[in-house]
Write a structure and sequence with these properties.
With about 170 residues, this protein is of the alpha+beta class. It has 4 helices and 9 strands; from the N terminus they run E-E-E-E-E-H-H-E-H-E-E-E-H. The protein has a 5-stranded antiparallel β-sheet with strand order 1-2-3-4-5.
Length: about 170
């Protein structure tokens, strides 16, 4: 499947794709955060069959439904293909010793052997976060590693393990 991207100056970005069944779908993500989703007539690509207009909150809700779970599913699929590799999601709860701290402060890879491969924050996904990314209460970390390592990471992030230096 090919996704075409077109910059619309002053408006946002338009994405268009053709589904396997031949349906053409257009999505305009507006600069202000809203979106329009259009299904085009297969016989007349200039004729819209329907348009859904989403305000920024609605667009965020759709992005969250389609974004984070799909990312997690991809890692779950990968863990089935690679023996010994598992994936998990870890919420950063209020009061976590790592809330408002750098991702590098978790020392996840060094202490548990796990890699944090994404940070999910509300409807946004930060793929391949760096040690300089700041964690916030409410974030969800997506990690891959061994089962034992993921258990260690869970304890560490929840504060049951050694806390980060002050």
């Amino acid at each position: 499947m090919e996704l075409e991207e077109t910059l619309l100056p002053g408006v946002g970005v338009r994405y268009e794709l053709t589904t396997r069944a031949g349906q053409v779908i257009g999505i305009v993500v507006q600069r202000e955060g809203g979106a329009e989703i259009v299904a085009y007539d297969r016989r007349d690509p200039d004729r819209a069959l329907g348009v859904f207009r989403l305000n920024p909150e609605e667009a965020d809700a759709i992005a969250e439904v389609l974004g984070a779970p799909r990312l997690t599913q991809r890692f779950a699929d990968l863990s089935r293909e690679v023996p010994g590799l598992q994936s998990a999601r870890f919420p950063i709860r209020p009061g976590s010793p790592f809330a408002d701290r750098l991702l590098g402060d978790t020392r996840a890879r060094t202490l548990t052997g796990c890699s944090i491969v994404a940070i999910v924050r509300d409807a946004d996904v930060v793929p391949s976060p760096t040690p300089a990314d700041v964690l916030r209460a409410g974030d969800v970390l997506v990690a891959i590693g061994s089962g034992r390592g993921l258990e260690q990471l869970d304890r560490r992030l929840s504060g049951e393990d050694e806390a980060p230096p002050a």
